[in-house]
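Fold these two proteins, one after the other.
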Amino acid sequence: VSLAFIVANWMPARWFAPMISLAEMLGILGVTLVEYHLGDYLDIVRWRDYFMGLSYASFGLALVTVLILRDRPASSQQGPSLTVADLWSQLVAIVRNKVLWINGIYSGVIFAILTGFVAGDGPTLLMTMDHLSRTDVARIHSYVMAGMVIGCVVVAYITHHEQYLSFAMKITPLVAAIA
């Protein structure tokens, strides 16, 4: 949410979707690279030490973000504020759009399945197999996440070209249903 706020204030409106897709791609790429080596690392370090290091790194990143990043460029002025009536009319338009409903439901279900597999039942299920080590399980999940990285690039390209956007909004639920 904070990234969306920063992108909306720093970038032109036409770059909003590509920049969010790029940021998501970089985040998922980072998760993929870390997860690929996580099994090896956890064989060396205890879980408690790992999460303590992760919490220190998160605190440091939050501190750097608060101290260095500005909400908007120094040269920009405060934009016009939206009224409650504006927000309500936009919400009603979104709720009435059938393509958004279908796309949202299918992509939400698919993303929930993907997240549930990678972060939930997948590791437990795969660890019960005798021939897979913790490292193998982490690498299998990193390969699944690598597919999302490629998807983010495709989404960034499609959303930046308006002539493809309508087609993408109609084909995404079909692709999600097949997957």
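Now the second one:
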Amino acid sequence: KEIQVKSFVNALNTGDYIYYFDKESNKNYVYLNTSVPKRIRDYEYHTVEECGQELYFPDLSLEPIPCTADNSGYGVKLNNATEFTIGSMSNIKVKVQSNEITRRIKPNRRFIFNHSEHGIYEIKDIEVYNTGILLFTCDKSLYRPQYDDLENNVADSTHGSEDIKPPIDDQVKTYTIKGC
């Protein structure tokens, strides 16, 4: 959901979060400023998007990272023979503020939305969307019950923990054979 915000000149930068508490609904909202401001007289107008999701990477930050997520939906693929295929793609684009925490997120990291095994994605590409914003292009990922913590919304919950051993099934087994 996009809305337009009016501010004083230089009060908001691209990539800034805006925190808003609605007293009527008793709900907190977080918006991400995704635009370059348009100046009209003594004010600037910004387009902001509601952050409807949060990313959890406990090895990077104990606080959730507000983000926007947009389903890319369908796409067209062309080949050399000028044939094309229209198909469903299960990828999304995620926008976050560019800061010292989010710049440490690398491709191939996985995350979970809404505590659901159907809301697991893997970051495939990272772009600088605008100064102040990172854009993650993500593909759907499979649920890995031994690593994914749905309750806490954390995929690859062992990421960054060297002292945590993989499940017994994934450990290398060594056998000694005597005789002969």
